[in-house]
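// run 5 | inverse folding | seed 20
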């Protein structure tokens, strides 16, 4: 009788061992990256991932640890991410769709208008959308910052102005020039 119990117990143990053995490895979920307001590539952690790989602009894959969930990108760069498994119970995910940091836009060049006022010239321009201010040069001299959209000068002066961008989303415009009016 003891032998039968031992045999039954052995069969049950063998059954448990075979049943408890893990099945086929599972492919990890693909991360869903996004770009935040600070141009950071970010994603949520993927359960079972031992790390992540990312590619910037289709370049070489860079591997980072499982605690890295943010990468700084530059304007105009795109990136994709995948989760890395342990190769046994978890396989690497597919690459995510690429996400892109918006590039910097160049501001429009001011459109100058000149009006004679006695011996002087009033040079003016419409405000440039998203400009933080303007810089001008008189007779190719030093650059001076102004917030106004008009300026008096002598008819013999040369004048150049450009709209200032914020350096984050907008670059400075090209120079708009006005030649002497005599």
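// decoded
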């Amino acid at each position: 009788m003891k032998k039968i119990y031992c045999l039954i117990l052995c069969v049950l143990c063998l059954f448990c061992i075979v049943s408890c053995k893990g099945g086929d490895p599972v492919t990890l979920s693909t991360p869903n990256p996004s770009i935040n307001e600070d141009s950071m590539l970010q994603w949520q952690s993927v359960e079972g991932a031992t790390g992540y790989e990312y590619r910037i602009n289709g370049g070489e894959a860079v591997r980072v640890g499982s605690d890295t969930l943010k990468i700084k990108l530059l304007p105009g760069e795109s990136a994709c991410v995948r989760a890395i498994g342990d190769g046994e119970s978890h396989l690497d995910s597919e690459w995510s769709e690429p996400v892109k940091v918006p590039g910097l836009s160049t501001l429009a060049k001011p459109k100058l208008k000149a009006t004679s006022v006695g011996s002087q010239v009033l040079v003016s321009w419409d405000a440039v959308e998203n400009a933080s201010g303007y810089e001008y040069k008189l007779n190719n001299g030093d650059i001076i910052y102004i917030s106004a959209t008009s300026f008096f000068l002598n008819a013999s002066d040369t004048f150049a102005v450009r709209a200032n961008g914020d350096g984050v989303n907008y670059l400075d415009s090209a120079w708009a020039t006005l030649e002497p009016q005599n």
